[in-house]
Amino acid sequence: MSEPKNPTPAADTYKGWVFKWTNYIKGYQRRWFVLSNGLLSYYRTQAEMGHTCRGTINLATATITVDDACNFVISNGGAQTYHLKASCEVERQRWITALELAKAKAARLQAESDDSGDDFPSSSLPVAPGQGGGSQNSEVQAALRTLGSKVEDLSTCNDLISKHGSALQRSLSELDNLRLPGEAGDKFRQVTERATLFRITSNAMINACRDFLALAQAHNKRWQKALLAEREQRVRLEEALEQLAKQHNHLERAFRGAAQANAAPDNKGATGPGKGEASDEDDDNEFFDAVEEAPEFITVPADPQFHKSSSSASGFNTEMCSDDQSLNDEPLAMNQELPSQDLVPLKKRRTRIPDKPNYSLNLWSIMKNCIGKDLSKIPMPVNFNEPISMLQRLSEDLEYHELLDKAAKCHSSLEQMCYVAAFCVSAYSTTVYRTGKPFNPLLGETFELDRRRESGYRSLCEQVSHHPPAAAHHVISERGWTLRQEITVASKFRGKYLSIMPLGTIHAVFAKSNNHYTWKKVTTTVHNIIVGKLWIDQSGEIDVVNHTTGDRCHLKFAPYSYFSRDIARKVTGVVMDKDGKAHYVLSGTWDEKMEFSRVMQSSRGGENGTEGKQKTVYQTLKARELWKRNPLPDGAESMYFFTALALTLNEPEEGVAPTDSRRRPDQRLMEDGRWDEANSEKQRLEEKQRSARREREREAASQRASSQSEEGVPHDNYKSRWFDRCEDQITGC
After folding, report:
1. Measured between alpha carbons, how far is residue 317 from residues 259, 599, 602, 622 in Å?
2. 10 Å Cβ neighbour count for 463?
3. 356 DSSP 8-state letter
4. Does residue 298 contact residue 605 with C-beta atoms inside 8 Å?
5. pTM for the structure as a whole
6. How confident is the model over 85-107, as pLDDT tens digits?
7. Which residues contact 285 (CB under 8 A, 6 or more apart)?
8. Among 47, 44, 49, residue whose Cα is nearest residue 29
9. Nearest in space to 87 (alpha carbons), one of 14, 3, 5, 18
10. What are the angstrom distances between the C-alpha of 573 and each of 274, 323, 457, 610, 617?
11. Which of 549, 542, 636 is nearest to 590 (CA)?
12. Contact 496, 529 (CB under 8 A)
């Protein structure tokens, strides 16, 4: 007859059918009772709960008595008395337990409301500057009240266990005095022994609860005082930090003003502008400003004589200076050697894709189970992706292919090295706002990018391995260069950030000079995985090596530091010949631009480094722009921050291979904004790929068994279609 929830000490609401005494004619009638917030109400039916309540009694002042096995009475002192009957003794006990808990909580809340105030009123708690103190104080007080309520619930349960345990022991003692038959007596003795064990265990738990309750009550005031002290300390630290920031800003402005006032007129404009701080680098002092990162070298403006003519003491002849001029001022005719294409109009590429839907998803709820794991082996929903594959993302490295076009026209290998180094840096400019994850390519997936008519190159990517994931990329340009790379991506989730470590070597070969360059990629880090706005940083070092001439460029990507006075995303580099002599200094940022300066003289000296070593001081000519990032298309923030090239990568095209990334259904569905369907399709494709891999492994295992030798038989007999694995003659791998 009753359908209540099982009561627990923490339950705030309890409902069920109970029989209530009405009068001598009708007797007990079935009613729907609701226990909530210390009030017991009843209704004729459940449907009446929304509009008609037949009666309510406040348990804070009520008494609860038990008549017999199923009956119990609730009275508030005469005005209201409910004679109730449960369907069985177990159900009656559930109601009694729930009612006593609710009564204890209601009495406690009433006592708190009658108090004049708390030991630590919210007005006495300090408030951090610029923050809403009222809401924080109320949260702290609410937390303390909740903890106190739970402790009181524990105390009430303690009393209930003691009460019911004593009643059980009395009942067993009464039964013990009765004369029972032999078998029934044995059973009764077993029950008595078990009840005794229960009583001992319950007493132990009661004693532990009582000790905990006493300890919690004793330390309650101490915890509140500790909380107050911590909040006061935090306020003091925030105020001190604010004062330090103001003083630092004031001193920085004063220093800049003094430096500008004392700067020599002939030194103005001798150095290249920094990122948003052109006026700060117009004087010599800025070149000797020590930073936290301890730069490996220092650049200073060269003597004015180097700007007028070449000097025999400098070690550079007139021919090299003319090369420097050609590196900056000579206009590059990009299509001089190509046939005229005026008669055939170029294909018009798309400039927009559907806007990104505003789907919310808790990133931490998924990432918390991935700490320390390789994310390439963990399936992720498309909510974390962007609608292009990793193969298309690799092709985005060609966003600034014109740098390689210019490099192919250089007569000096050192000049060529500058453009190749700038191309290395430019590949990261597309990642600054791109926090989405590309789709993991399926094994055998390809992507072909044919831009021969527009830009003179053709690119092909193929996923050649699934575990570990590896992609091969080959680009051929009609303007005299070839680019190839094999990239394996390793990723680790560290809790607060995600590290992406590309493994593999990139090769660039120029046909005219036969110069062969190689370099590797730096580590990409995605910050604020748990809380805050996601942002990306690039850090590490790159050595660009010309294996034909021995020239080398060492690039350093400085990691972001909150305390650094340097510009963010800074990149520096030095171009040296095979003898280690510096010829160019590169500087800039990986998200905006790169500049180069011709080195006229170098010397050891200047400020000492952090390890006591003297830094190299380079005297350079005026810095000139080498590369600058293209602006993003209009509305890029709603299109995954794609560049103009990225918007065209997934554009449907005729004549591409069936394995091309443009034909992936899950990727296409995501681009169209149908994310639920994309997730289902993505799971189907991944399961199909796993099934195919298991089949290949079974075939390989059968081959090993038939050959009776595991030598030369791979565990997976997959073979890529467009690429063959071989040893590189330059790198030996």
Report:
1. 35, 13, 16, 18
2. 23
3. P
4. no
5. 0.57
6. 998 888 888 888 888 888 888 88
7. 259, 263
8. 44
9. 18
10. 15, 20, 28, 19, 14
11. 542
12. yes
For the segment 685-728, what is each residue's pLDDT rounded down to a tens digit? 989 998 998 888 888 888 877 776 555 556 677 888 999 888 88
List, in order, residues 6 or more apart from 314 with CB less than 8 Å away. 306, 600, 601
Using the CB atoms, write b or e for 658-679: b if 16+ within 10 Å.
Answer: ebbbbebebbbbbbeebbeebb
Closest C-alpha to 392, from 627, 629, 643, 592: 643
Distances (CA, A) of 192 to 173, 195, 199, 229: 9, 5, 10, 54
Cα–Cα distance, 554 to 520 (Å, whole number): 12
Q: For residue 476, what are the contacts with CB-CB under 8 A and spacing of at least 6?
A: 457, 458, 482
CA distance 544 to 578: 12
- Enter the tokens of residue 186: 């044995």
DSSP code of residue 364: H
Dist CA 126 CA 123 (whole Å)? 8
Measured over the CA atoms of residue 403, residue 409, residue 413 and residue 415, the dihedral's sign is: negative
Calculate ∠ Cα 15-17-21, nearest 5°: 120
Beta-strand pair 523-527/535-546: antiparallel
Angle between helices 133-176 and 182-262 (to 10 degrees): 170
Strands 437-439 and 385-389 come out as: parallel
Categorize the per-residue pLDDT at 668 as very low, low, confident or very high, splitting at 50, 70 and 90: very high
Distance CA 394, CA 486 (A): 10
